[in-house]
């Protein structure tokens, strides 16, 4: 069954086998914003036209020093053939002053003109080489990052929660097929990979085998199952947190290898029902789930002075104790006192995205 499903979504060509320069339109690494090649060419072309016009004005002002009487068009023509090093020889400087001006002013401008045009081509090529090298270095060094599959509403909310919890944008990789959606992720400083996460090669170039966690948040449940299967096969030790719309599909994701499954439709339904009888409770729940302001549910290690204490008596409002990967609610017997190595699930005060 699994092999048949994977066969349907197998790539015709492995992206992971392509050289880094072939992935320039697939992987985008965050960095300083740089102007595009076309804008660079247009700007340099403007500089070149400015030099051309400047020489034409200089020649026209000193037109008496040339081999024939010049109109401004003649001066512009002389400027063009001179700066482009064509040099037909039909118009030449004949007086000492005109030749001196050509030596001191026109010749340096001619050199700058050539360097400007050649430099434009080199700059465009260098930019591509720089990005290719950047991708190569990133693929070699990426470790313990978090991959978010799908940058829709759920994916964006997951990223916001990660950023609010202190995860650096460069340690988050977003996979999506929509380039316009990925542009929003790039604006936040996230690494992006364009492609379908149901394909193993797309997951490979995102570094899934070295990822700490993978958030599976596509719009369709069947896609979530396929992605989870692929991720678990490629990254047996990664934590997989998946979102599913319908509760009857929860067991499929768990069987596919998801460590945690969030049922989005049922959660929204419960909040809608609760809002009809206790809207203030829903308001507080939304506050707890919002990472930007107000209150937030967080997890932290216990302090040395808290070992052996009852979590109900700590300064923080503790909701549960995490021990050896298991969560014990505050009212459970296991949570009567905290032990070395425990972590506390508590409510923290958040202001402007900082705790």
TrEMBL record:
The keyword Transmembrane helix applies. Residues 143-263 form the RCK N-terminal domain. SUPFAM superfamilies: NAD(P)-binding Rossmann-fold domains (SSF51735), Voltage-gated potassium channels (SSF81324). GO terms for cellular component: plasma membrane. Keywords: Ion channel, Ion transport, Membrane, Transmembrane, Transmembrane helix, Transport. The keyword Amino-acid biosynthesis does not apply. GO terms for biological process: monoatomic ion transmembrane transport; potassium ion transport. Pfam families: Ion_trans_2, TrkA_N. It is found in: Cell membrane. The chain crosses the membrane at residues 41-61, 100-125. It is a multi-pass membrane protein. InterPro entries: K_chnl_dom, NAD(P)-bd_dom_sf, RCK_N, Trk_Ktr_HKT_K-transport. PANTHER family: POTASSIUM CHANNEL PROTEIN 2-RELATED-RELATED, POTASSIUM CHANNEL PROTEIN YUGO-RELATED. This is Voltage-gated potassium channel Kch. It comes from Corynebacterium occultum. The lineage of its organism: Bacteria, Bacillati, Actinomycetota, Actinomycetes, Mycobacteriales.
